[in-house]
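Ticket 4471: requesting a sanity check on a complex prediction with GMT. Repro inputs:
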Amino acid sequence: MRIGITCYPTYGGSGVVATELGIELAQRGHQVHFISYSQPIRLTEAHPNIHYHEVEVPQYPLFEYPPYDLALATRMAEVAELYDLDLLHVHYAIPHSVSAMLARQMLACDRVRGKSRRLPYITTLHGTDITLVGLDRSYLPITRFSIQQSNGVTAISRYLKQKTLEEFSITTPIDVIYNFVNCDIYRRDPAAKAHRAEWARDDERLLVHLSNFRPVKRVTDCIEIFDRLLKKIPARLLMIGDGPDRVKAEWLAKQKGIHDRVVFLGKQDRVHEKLAIADALLLPSEMESFGLAALEAMACEAVPIATNVGGVPEVIDHGQTGFMCEAGAVDEMARCAIEVLGDDARLREMGKAARFEAQARFCTTRIIPKYEEFYRGVLEREP
Ligand code: GMT
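Returned structure tokens:
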């Protein structure tokens, strides 16, 4: 198939999922065309089946808000014609779904040139496109409309599907296709002793937090939890990513006098290398419709200590493959961290169970065929 993929190319779960999906599809022989305003950050290596088309948004003094969504729709239609795309797959409804709808309509009604071609589009819902941004009155009607107009809709958890049906009164069927992880890349690396030694001593535990540091991620809770843990267990914390709340977390670590134990690495594109040497992942988010970072950690046998929100319970089995506490319950999360990190055997046992679960339910080999099947279904319905 020839597939156009649009996503936010920056640091963020939806962009990561879209990029990894494109890479996996390309490896399975499909032609994949990424259409976005910059190259997706996880698209680090060239592949003959992967093409990237940049969307340029011309500036004009009149435009206080340059219309990216229109430039995107134009580029989508152009790429579809040039490369004879079978479909568009957009990740995160706002504004990608609206742009795709316009591109489809432009191609269907190109009477000026006497041509008409079909361009079905699929929308994958990821999280705040529904739970936060999409519920804003200024976005809700158009988001609902563009989802409803999609030729296929998927959500990355049962929670998100339910939320979309409730809040948006959508009548279009929504298929749940869970996020996935490549278990050959995301795995514990027994040969990484030297790499681990760069970050922590042998007698120290290594924890990771990975996010876009937005308020919904509650990054300062990581520092609170880690501060409590340090009183019992020697450890180091790697904070991976960047965003508006990074500086708050940096100041809190400084105030607590633990900043020499916390390393803020900023944005990283090879996160599997850090997760492969980590013992645990902190994910204290206010909301996660899935929690991709938790899954990536699980595949690497790093135990996720997360919050019991949104779709996280569909990923983590509390006490078996990780821990879940109420959002903001930093004492409780610290207690879970101390419980597992203070006991070698328990840590290894939970790490192994986490990897087993990641492989059994969320491995690319299980999930990517579901997308291929979904695409075929859409194309059959839209001859
Ligand atoms: O909703 C967001 O925060 C944006 C989005 C992203 O692009 O990072 O994250 C969502 O999609 C991820 C990938 O499907 C999920 O793993 C995250 O749980 C989800 N974030 C939230 O629901 C807050």
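Notes from triage: The first helix runs from residue 13 to 27. Leaving this open until the requester confirms.
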